[in-house]
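Q: How would the structure tokens look for this protein?
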Amino acid sequence: MRTLNPQRFWKAPPPVKIEAGDPEAAEKLITALSLLLKAHMGPRQTLVALCIGTDRSTGDSLGPIIGSALKRRQPCIPLLGTLEDPVHAVNLRDKLLEVERSFPDPFVLAVDACLGRLDSVGKIDVGPGPLQPGAGVNKSLPRVGDAYISGIVNVGGFLEYFVLQNTRLNIVMSLAEVITEGLHHIFLGPLEAGSRGGGPS
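A: Here is the predicted structure in token form.
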């Protein structure tokens, strides 16, 4: 009798939007990420966080702020993109090659800031598939990630580069705090199990 693979019948969760100001935002993010990884990440894959952005722009600093905060809490996790060593438009392709060289079968979770509608500012988008870095400021960069977390830092549609430069740091830090907490708990799962590969239990 053939053994059925339960993953074939697992319905992938839809993209999720979370309000960073919600008192339960971190818990909601942990739940969303756990379901997403269960649906899309292979059991032998290594979860790698790719935190994209630069500290030269307030709005675009979300990714490296999260990367640095995670590295302080968990120095050994598979992660690229910190305030000290950011992943940005100039070096993105090289960093993607570094991921491929360093991890035989990576599952890349891309983390980046983005612009959106006024009523979405301060919210976190989580979903499967790649994100398009630089789209908000008309840069042509490769799509990255097997899944994504996007923090909506400001309103898009007009003078995007200027908008990112003049984004309130308070919004960025509020988003970063929630995303850092969520990723911290997600990475604790495989690390406590004795392996950096595999998703949360």
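Helices lie at 25-40, 62-73, 92-102, 160-165, 169-192.

The domain at 22-190 is CATH 3.40.50.1450 (Rossmann fold).

Upvote if useful.
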